[in-house]
Design a protein that fits this description.
290 residues, alpha/beta, 6 helices, globular
């Protein structure tokens, strides 16, 4: 039995400002309520500490949704819903993204984690015209998720809205999911007084598959960014690619402070092309053709 001491877990929203979590235990379970702790790890994520049940009472829960207990339990991440606009985003005309022209892979076989960097009170880099890294990468990530899903790839996003998620929960969520690949999306920056610095670069930590993933993303993003310097696919020690257990890459898709890159990153049509480029790279790596 998955939860040997729990009978039922219920979640509800009695009003727009309140979320109620009810844990109903099996008869005979003895707990000291003062020893229970609900710890917020992000604005939309919590960790419940059940002190006093003993080391074998519960299967440990990972970060993420309550169902993400272990790969052995058969849990797989849910399908990410179709993108819906947020009031803070620049209005853009969106058509449903299909997978026409993208590489094909066996449907339902693969799971990919897409990690939009930063979020919430941490906007990441802020560049020319107030362009915020978080807005760029979340838009691209949501479109990548939709494109991959159109090709039958299951997708888990570390965030889908403007919330602040720390680095360890992102890694834990990915590692608990049993994903095949992890891709973290970012935008670069330098001092606002250096608009001459532009370019695309993609990082991996170690391993031939991570290197192939980084190089595939680098090549595809460069192909749609004429004139932007090739800063290379190379090794880096970023936390989210160093601590994930699957092949992983971190893409810097241009400089929000660059006179060439920033106007492109601010353009919804270009961000759509970025999503297609990143999705193409991921699908080629999954299919073994990169």
């Amino acid at each position: 039995m998955l939860f040997r001491s729990l009978r039922e877990v219920r979640i509800g929203r009695p009003d727009s400002q309140t979320t109620r979590l009810v844990l109903e235990f099996q008869p005979g379970v003895r707990l000291d309520p003062s020893q229970l702790r609900l710890v917020g790890t992000a604005r939309d994520r919590w960790r419940m500490e059940l002190v006093g049940l003993g080391g074998r009472a519960l299967t440990p829960l990972g970060e993420g949704s309550l169902e993400s207990v272990s790969v052995a339990s058969g849990w797989r991440p849910p399908v990410i819903p179709t993108w819906t606009p947020r009031p803070s985003e620049t209005p853009i005309s969106r058509r449903p993204l299909g997978g026409e022209g993208l590489p094909e892979v066996p449907r339902g076989r693969y799971l990919v984690v897409i990690d939009p960097g930063h979020g919430g009170p941490d906007p990441g880099a802020v560049g020319i015209g107030g362009l915020r890294e978080t807005d760029v990468v979340l838009d691209v990530a949501l479109q990548v998720a939709q494109l991959l899903q159109s090709r039958g790839v299951r997708v888990l996003l570390t965030r889908t809205t403007e919330v602040d998620v720390d680095l360890p929960p992102r890694v834990s969520l990915a590692n608990q999911s049993g994903a095949d690949l992890f891709v973290s999306l970012h935008a670069n920056a330098l001092d606002i007084s250096r608009p001459d610095v532009n370019g695309i670069e993609t990082f991996y930590f170690e391993g031939s598959r991570s290197q192939r993933l980084a190089q595939a993303i680098q090549d595809q993003v460069l192909a749609i960014s004429p004139g932007s310097p090739d800063r290379g696919a190379r090794q880096g020690r970023f936390f989210v690619i160093r601590r994930t257990i699957m092949p992983a890459a971190l893409a810097e898709m241009g400089f929000v402070t660059g006179s060439l890159d920033a106007p492109r990153l601010a353009d919804p049509a270009f961000r759509r092309r970025l999503a297609v480029a990143v999705s193409t790279a991921i699908l080629r790596v999954l299919g073994g053709s990169s």
